[in-house]
Design goal:
This protein is mainly alpha-helical. It is 76% helix and 3% strand. α2 crosses α3 and α7 packs antiparallel against α11. The termini are far apart. The mean pLDDT is 87.
């Protein structure tokens, strides 16, 4: 009996091993035939890449300025900073390094992507203009261009991966409700686009307008945090002006053009559900950008006024 039991067990294990081997052999083929699975895998890979940038920056900072020792300028890198919900400046700087890499990389990628597919985006048959404004047929671009265009879905996965790891950092170290809501909203709006057949162009344009000022913003923020007053003074007017133009003028215009594309279609045609949902989330984001812009301008004016009084005194 024991011999038969051993034989049955051996046969069962052999069958399981064979099935596992067949499954592993077919796994690459399965991924190639399932776009959503591929996209989620790319998102995870990009999240890991940005986390690696984050950790590498943190490790390099420990070499340049050992823990619990102030920098030559007297900045405490490891003490809690109230402005960042008690997170240390060392951790904040490491996170901002990943943000800087994403801002530069995603802007360049999406700019190149839109240029590469410009003929498709501007094609009248693809755009289906429904209204004319100042001599221009709107919408200006085919925002529902196919996600199957080379590089389109991959660019979205890159930004999604960044926001996944950045949200993890924010939740663990800088639990600011505004940042948490912003990152969660981006993930909620963009993930359905990645998993749908259309909509990459509207996200790419929004990414261009949002990320173009981010390198300047990050430099401005860290100059203030590290006490580099001269750099902060030099960057303040540039950043304020750039942010006002991009978030206060260009982005609302782009959202209006996207609205024409999504909601102004002839014959009762409707845009894909993922695009309508993403637009609703982005529209709320425009409101948040307006609040940030107003706070930025007020802070800039207050800072300049205080500086003039100090100089006169």
């Amino acid at each position: 009996l024991r011999i038969k039991e051993v034989q049955r067990w051996s046969l069962s294990m052999s069958l399981r091993t064979t099935q596992l081997s067949i499954t592993l052999e077919r796994l690459p083929e399965w991924f190639q035939s399932h776009d959503r699975a591929q996209s989620l895998l790319r998102v995870g890979a990009w999240a890991g890449a940005y986390y690696a940038v984050h950790r590498a920056t943190y490790a390099l900072s420990l070499v340049a300025a050992p823990k619990n020792k102030r920098t030559p300028g007297g900045v405490d890198l490891d003490g809690p900073v109230p402005r960042y919900a008690g997170c240390s400046l060392r951790k904040v700087a490491a996170a901002r390094a990943a943000s800087f890499v994403h801002a530069v990389g995603s802007f360049a990628w999406n700019a190149r992507l839109m240029r590469r597919h410009w003929n498709v985006l501007r094609d009248v048959a693809q755009r289906r203009p429904v209204v004319r404004f100042l001599g221009r047929a709107l919408p200006l671009l085919a925002y529902d261009a196919s996600n199957e265009l080379p590089g389109a879905r991959e660019a979205l996965c890159c930004s999604l991966g960044y926001f996944v790891q950045e949200l993890a950092h924010v939740l663990g170290n800088e639990p600011d409700p505004v940042f948490v809501a912003h990152h969660a909203a981006y993930l909620a709006a963009t993930l359905p686009i990645v998993c749908s057949p259309r909509g990459w162009a509207m996200v790419s344009l929004a990414t261009l307008l949002a990320e173009v000022t981010n390198p300047l913003q990050l430099s401005w923020e860290l100059a203030r945090a590290f006490g580099c007053e001269q750099v902060y003074d030099a960057l303040s007017p540039l950043f304020t002006f750039g942010f006002a133009v991009c978030r206060g003028v260009l982005m609302p215009l782009a959202m209006g053009d996207i609205a024409v594309s999504i909601f102004g279609r002839d014959g009762g045609a409707r845009a894909p559900p993922a695009m309508r949902f993403a637009y609703g989330v982005f529209f709320v984001g425009i409101g948040a950008s307006g609040v940030w812009l107003a706070q930025l301008i007020r802070g800039f004016r207050r800072y300049r006024r205080k500086k003039r009084l100090n100089n006169n005194g």
